[in-house]
Known about the structure:
Order of helices and strands: EEEEEHHHHH
Radius of gyration: 19 Å
Number of domains: 2
Strand order of the largest sheet: 3-2-4
Structural class: alpha+beta
Shape: elongated
Strand content: 5-15%
Distance between the termini: 45 Å
Amino acid sequence: MERGDTFMSTFDVAQVCLNGHPANDSMRRLPQFNKNFCSKCGERTTRTCSSCNNPIPGQYHVEGVVSVGFRYHPPAYCQSCGSAFPWTTRGIQAAIEFAKLELDEADKEVFEQNVGELVKDSPQTKVAAARIRKVFAKSGSAFGDSIREILVDIASESAKKMLWG
């Protein structure tokens, strides 16, 4: 390349099932891998935000560069309108429903008021994680281990570190 030449780079469009399983992180570049339904859970796939209809950002492509070992993770929120994607709200709701089965009334309330913050990466995330960690300590390891399976896919990295080290 000569001085002044630039690489063209862009995000592709991702196709994700409503439960958050990536179906194709490069719909435009690799349309042969597009799917109407998820091969893991059978749920319908989508490529746009249900609130604003903007595309879900997929893999980032840079002309002339090959990425190896990249694993796509769908975003929790739409970068265009800020709405939670269906897999985010479904994960939060599943965690709340599970907590209702396992916790006493006071701990249910603490959990329900704070679990939504675990998905975000904000100053309040650390506070919410500390509150939920106290609920884990009181409820025992069986609850903590089970709820971890639900939250691990939707919680922010900082929340995961606070909750599970």
